[in-house]
Amino acid sequence: MKKETTVPTMKDVAKEAGVALGTVSKVVNGLPVGESYRLRVEAAIEKLNYQVNSYAQGLKSSRTYTAALLIPNTKTPFFSSLAYYINLSLLKRNYRMLLCSTDFDLSQEQEYVTMAQQNKVDGIIGLTYNPNLLVDEHIPFVSIDRSMGPNIPCVASDNFAGGQLAAEKLADLGCKHVAFLRIGSSLSNEPNKRKSGFENGCLARGLTYEMKILNDGDSFEEFEKFLKDHIQNGKLIFDGIFCVTDNVAWSVLKILDKLHQQVPEDVQVIGFDGIRMFGDQDYICSTIVQPLPDIAEMCVELLLQENMMPKPPLVCLPVTYAWGGTTRENFEE
Amino acid sequence: MKKETTVPTMKDVAKEAGVALGTVSKVVNGLPVGESYRLRVEAAIEKLNYQVNSYAQGLKSSRTYTAALLIPNTKTPFFSSLAYYINLSLLKRNYRMLLCSTDFDLSQEQEYVTMAQQNKVDGIIGLTYNPNLLVDEHIPFVSIDRSMGPNIPCVASDNFAGGQLAAEKLADLGCKHVAFLRIGSSLSNEPNKRKSGFENGCLARGLTYEMKILNDGDSFEEFEKFLKDHIQNGKLIFDGIFCVTDNVAWSVLKILDKLHQQVPEDVQVIGFDGIRMFGDQDYICSTIVQPLPDIAEMCVELLLQENMMPKPPLVCLPVTYAWGGTTRENFEE
DNA sequence: AAAATATCGCGAAACGTTACATGAAACTTA
DNA sequence: TAAGTTTCATGTAACGTTTCGCGATATTTT
Question: What residue of A is the nearest CA neighbor of B254?
């Protein structure tokens, strides 16, 4: 009746089955073992309700089958969907996910990296903002949306193409003079390329445009001022607006409503990200959709690839346009 | 120049500092050590850039400072916010979070529990649907929204009070005949109490009501049929609708729009959960708000409490009403 | 100043695995 | 049938910590 409350170990199983420790290990790991031995061990495992101790395995083999995901939070739709798909991709490879919410706090990002290293994760996927994040050489790291250094691959949407696509769509839908609303970022990250893509697209299609950038600390009210300043005779001078994110687009839609501008009749709005209501229902606006499942899969793929093939410094994945009610469905003159 | 690429261990630090292994351990864990020793060890740690190996610690001490969170997914606003706050509460206590997305799959829930047990997590918080989930006696478990057994505490919003509050609000806002739209659940979980709370509230305030329950497999179109069937002379016979979740409310709002019913002028709508746009902006509808931060804190509190105080079988936390544009702001006759 | 006591670093054992060398049995070969 | 070969379970040594009894100093007591 002693050690009744103890969790059974391989040793217990070995004793129960009357075999050596190593034999149990082999059975557990599916290595070749004599039929009779295997049956006895399996019976003992069943009887004692034995479960391997991943911590002992991890210590011995220094393979933990765990990856850490660093994102600002899980509340915001974009990040939470990303987390969802990355978890899915990890799970497919039998990996567990340690979730690290950094809340956009640069020092917390660093703390989490340190924690992850101590926790001997097999790799880290990070959507981070700390430009001089210290990551151990020995631990694989894949970055999302930000190039971090020569040996760290970066996965992102094709933001340039996305910006271009937005411009083309607006042109296709009959726009002539459009606005680009974005949030300032000191960081040189991939999403910044939406700007040049959009400019490029406008140029190619003969669209004229104006741009409003929010500075650090500015609230969305700056957008309201900007738009108000561009109303003549009760009518907005823009017939199209490209917003750098769906989040911005959402605010802009509310502002346009306040300013009595009809969407999409008076002005058409395109966002970026592909946020859906409740994560999987209707798009909240017409938008350039980021391929989150592909981004997730690519991150995990790059993180865990066994062969020592050189990892590409940047992978851009194709975006698509989705109608979400804030643009015309088709253009008719 | 040998073992250049190896991660330094305590042994290396001990050698570097010229002290014993145990001394390094004490320094690392903040246990009392002679000043001169401590300085030497700290210098060595700094020099070698040493970091503890949590897996070795976990194996030795069988304390991993890790908790698993089982939720259906992180895409849906309610779950992703929950994950966010639970992560916050865990972090406060220096715990890491293993995220387990079950996708409403009962067998996957079980697999994750097994995985968590093998991973020697210190506890599991679960919002699960498997009625006979097998959880090891030795591992603390806290359930959200579902009572799972005598020794497993359940944390939930005060769903009964929430239903009641919804009825009272509708009454306060001038409603006379209302509808309650819900999704069927074979499970006897806490959210089911929204029904009895609502009925109770209607009774107390003299509201008459009709109820529509979606069966398994039914789509939201059933709600559309139901509402269409209750239109007389182009006018819905309900002046208020209580939806069992904000998700249902959102669908209903779209249906009402299609049926040319004005919200909140013709009919007022109240949802349940407190979902906000982009996780922290405007409520998507008038709603009964679940206190997610408190629920998270309570779960973690119960999970990690050291003293062997008996854990309460059920903790219900107070809900609040929030205006979200789908009810009148005030009632004026 | 010698004995008794307190202080605190030392070294070994243990946590639950995996991997590898060992050797005993079962085969093949001539 | 004896020698050579293969097969495969065994036992032991790690992995990097923590813990704990031991004993060497340093401190107090008479």
Answer: A282
Q: Does the model's pTM come out above 0.90?
A: yes
Strand pairing report for A268-273 and A240-243: parallel
Give the list of residues 6+ apart from residue A139 with CB closer than 8 angstroms, or none.
A116, A117, A121, A122, A123, A124
Strands (E), chain B: 66-71, 96-101, 123-126, 141-144, 154-157, 177-183, 208-214, 231-232, 235-236, 240-243, 268-273, 287-289, 314-317, 320-322
Are β-strands B240-243 and B96-101 bridged in parallel, bridged antiparallel, or unpaired? Answer: unpaired
Residue B122 with chain A: CB contacts under 8 Å? none
Indicate the residue type of A268. Answer: Q
Question: Which pLDDT tens digit goes with each residue over A229-249?
Answer: 999 999 999 999 999 999 999
- H runs (alpha helix) in B214-291: 221-229, 246-258
**A238 touches A177 (CB < 8 A):** yes
Looking at the DSSP bridge assignments, the partners of residue A209 are A178
Which positions of strand D lie within 7 Å of protein CB atoms? 8-21
**B3 pLDDT higher than 50:** no
The yes-or-no verdict on residue A6 having pLDDT over 90 is: no
Residues 6 or more apart from A92 whose CB is under 8 A from it? A300
Nucleotide nearest to B61 (CA to C1'): D18
Please choose, from the candidates B93, B96, B105, the residue with its C-alpha nearest in 3D space to the C-alpha of residue B69. B96
- 3-class state of residue A208 by DSSP: strand
As a rounded value in angstroms, the CA-to-C1' distance for B56 and C28 is 47
Q: Is the CB of A41 under 7 A from strand D?
A: no
Domains in chain B, start-ordered, CATH in brackets?
A: 10-52 (1.10.260.40), 66-157+293-317 (3.40.50.2300), 159-291 (3.40.50.2300)
Task: Name chain A contacts of B83, Cβ cutoff 8 Å.
Answer: 74, 80, 99
pLDDT at B332: 61
> Considering all CA atoms of chain B, what is the largest pairwise distance in Å, rounded to the nearest integer?
92
Asked whether the beta carbons of B304 and B149 are under 8 A apart, the reply is no
